[in-house]
Description:
mainly alpha; 6 helices; elongated
Amino acid sequence: AASGNNRAEIESIIIDLLKREDRDALPLIYANYKAVLFGNILRIVRRQEVAEDVFQETLLKIWKNRKDYAPQKGRLFTWKVSISRNNAIDKTRTREYKQLVNIQSAGDSVALEQSGPSYEMGIDQIGMADWVNILDE
């Protein structure tokens, strides 16, 4: 684990790189903050694949909004955590996310209701093939 001085030094280096619009800031952010940012996102969205997407969006947002960071308002760490949290919350409000949750919840309910040996139904067996075939690519 990095000491407090080492963390402050890394944060200072990242701030300097962001001010200079140096893309070397991104690998440093990834290496030093991935666990915290990703964990924060995952706690909110509760789905690994969604958290991975939100994490990537968070890195892009940090980069795009680098000029908005004001050291006098707070630590860089807090600013990045706030961005990750807001991105995750925004994601849970999207129609796409709500549909994913509903589909997965319905699938879990069906799986729990099945009795006897488990089996998987093909899309032809439940009438979905016709619907899938009319969908746009």
